[in-house]
Design brief:
The complex is a heterodimer. By secondary structure, chain A is of the alpha/beta class. Chain A is 42% helix and 16% strand. Chain A has helices spanning 4-10, 29-38, 59-68, 84-96, 126-137, 166-178, 192-202, 219-228, 236-244, 248-263, 280-289, and strands at residues 15-20, 44-47, 73-78, 101-105, 154-159, 183-188, 208-214, 269-273. Chain A has an 8-stranded parallel beta barrel, surrounded by 7 helices. In chain B, helix 4 packs across helix 6. The two termini of chain B are 27 Å apart. Classes of the chains: A alpha/beta, B alpha/beta. Chains A and B meet through helix 5 and helix 6 of A and helix 8 of B.
């Protein structure tokens, strides 16, 4: 059976996803508590993979635990920490645990994280990882050798609608789709207009687009994110709005809702990045689902 | 050329702790150009070691320390000074240091850190352009190496961290894929980027590597 994500995207339903980071430790109770809290409000939950190159439990196990709880995950899988053998071996395990949705990512550079002296792998890149996932869906490994049975992954990839110069990114986006990406989960969108241009550009690729929505808490947080999270730059206009607001946390939610509502007519879903504040997700979702 | 830098003096002194007599070896090629082990650096280090109470038995700057036969021959020409020394302190790339180690049973101390295969921008400025990956893709990428110039070595285009054409890892650098795209676009062959580049064959990178030319 296809995943809920695959089914809803195929039926042109507007998707709402969010994300959880696995624990930085061996106690999964907090993760499961958050997942149970969020599940009624969203369609699926992303499980991040050593996000920002900071140590966390493997998303393979965290996503597997969600499946066991009856919550559908999107397992993020990066090429930073695993060579081709490890990637495939984790994918086989994911398939065995009933994880269907995979977000194939390059991965943030190891230098930005808490193990900056480590060696990054990048044996494959996101395009080659997507090809590998497609091969596994055909019962083969990346070399074309037979596996015992086929996987039934539903793969997606990342996209940066506000990246400049955008044309440089377009051939890769196209390769991601030809390699098997069925949806793009975008980096944080701040300009619905830019998202609109992006959707026009990728329209010929016939790929679903889920827009990243970042829920900010304060101008300080926005500045911290811009400084420390690769690929995320909060525009000055939004930082100013947060700065001048008497209730920045509420303003952050308001901004997220504004962008999310605009996305409704532009793309196929939103991905809410609440930066660990689970309680804001229902507020955003309530407005969107209204 | 191989770019190397001299280790900090305290590290060199620490490595020489269990002896008092040192023979210093420099290299007339790469280490001279990047000023980690030419005549000048060998002389300066000799003075510094002497100031710190060490006895320098002699010095030599070998023409290509990585040339194993030549290094052996040159060290034999200074047999007495070499024999007197507790340590052979080598200021060359790692290849040269090991050529010295192979030529002598004396304790060898590395006085440099070998950094990369470098292009010379101008005097004193070196840039890494080639990683010696053994599987050259430059024909497909407009003469710009993504394996080296892209911080992640990505083969199929930029990562999501590219910002205003610059690299996520070092914002002062141009993203390699922007340069590749612009060159190919200018040469009206950017359609080359539509092809998926297959995974690298790391069998080319296994080490220790060797090459014996057929006669």
């Amino acid at each position: 059976m296809p995943s809920i994500l695959a089914r809803k995207l195929a039926a042109n339903e507007f998707i709402v996803t969010t994300e959880l980071a696995p624990p930085r430790g061996c106690d999964t109770s907090g993760l499961l508590r958050s997942a149970s809290f969020l599940a009624p409000f969203v369609d699926v939950i992303n499980i991040t993979d050593n996000q920002g190159a900071n140590l966390r439990m493997t998303p393979l196990l965290a996503a597997g635990l969600l499946v066991r709880e009856g919550i559908e995950p999107i397992m993020q899988l990066t090429c930073r920490d695993r060579n081709r053998l490890a990637l495939q071996s984790d994918l086989l395990a994911a398939a065995a645990m009933g994880i269907i949705n995979i977000l194939a990512l390059t991965g943030d550079a190891i230098g930005c994280g808490d193990h900056s002296q480590g060696r990054s792998v990048f044996d494959l890149d996101s395009v080659l990882l997507l090809q590998t996932i497609s091969a596994m869906n055909n019962g083969q490994d990346m070399n074309g050798a037979a596996l015992s049975g086929s996987a039934r992954f539903f793969a997606g990839a990342a996209a940066a609608p506000e990246a400049e110069p955008f044309d440089v990114t377009l051939p890769k986006l196209s390769k991601k789709v030809s390699a098997g990406s069925r949806f793009f989960q975008t980096q944080a969108v701040f300009s619905p207009q830019m998202l609109g241009f992006f959707c026009e550009k990728v329209h010929p690729l016939e790929v679903k687009v889920i827009a990243g929505i970042l829920v900010l808490k304060s101008a300080k947080m926005a500045e911290f994110i811009s400084r420390n999270i690769p690929g995320l730059k909060v525009p000055q206009t939004i930082i100013e709005r947060l700065k001048t607001s008497t209730d920045p946390a509420a303003e952050g939610i308001k901004i997220a809702i504004e962008i999310a509502e605009a996305c409704r007519t532009i793309c196929d879903g939103i991905h809410i990045m609440a930066m660990g504040r689970d309680d804001v997700v229902p507020q955003v979702v309530a407005e969107i689902r209204r | 050329m191989i770019v190397s830098t001299q280790k900090p003096l305290d590290q060199i002194l620490a490595a020489l702790q269990e002896g008092s007599r040192v023979f210093i070896i420099g290299c007339a090629k790469c280490a001279t150009v990047c000023k980690s082990g030419g005549e000048e650096e060998v002389f300066r280090l000799q003075e510094e070691l002497t100031t710190h109470g060490l006895d320098v038995t002699g010095t030599i700057v070998i023409d290509e320390t990585c040339h194993m036969l030549r290094t052996g021959r040159d060290l034999r020409s200074r047999r007495e000074q070499v024999q007197e020394a507790d340590f052979l302190l080598v200021l060359s790339c790692g290849a040269g240091i090991q050529a010295v180690a192979e030529a002598s049973e004396k304790k060898v101390v590395a006085g440099t850190d070998s950094k990369f295969l470098g292009n010379i921008r101008r005097f004193g400025q070196f840039e890494q352009r080639c990683s010696l990956c053994g599987d050259c893709r430059l024909n497909d990428t407009g003469g710009v190496c993504p394996v080296t110039v892209c911080a992640k070595g990505l083969l199929n285009g930029p990562c999501g961290g590219m910002q205003n054409g610059n690299c996520e890892v070092d914002e002062s650098r141009r993203c390699a894929w922007v340069t590749i795209y612009e060159r190919l676009e200018h040469q009206q062959r950017s359609q080359q980027l539509d092809e998926i580049t297959p995974a690298r064959d790391f069998a080319h990178k296994r080490h220790p590597n060797s090459l014996i030319l057929e006669k």
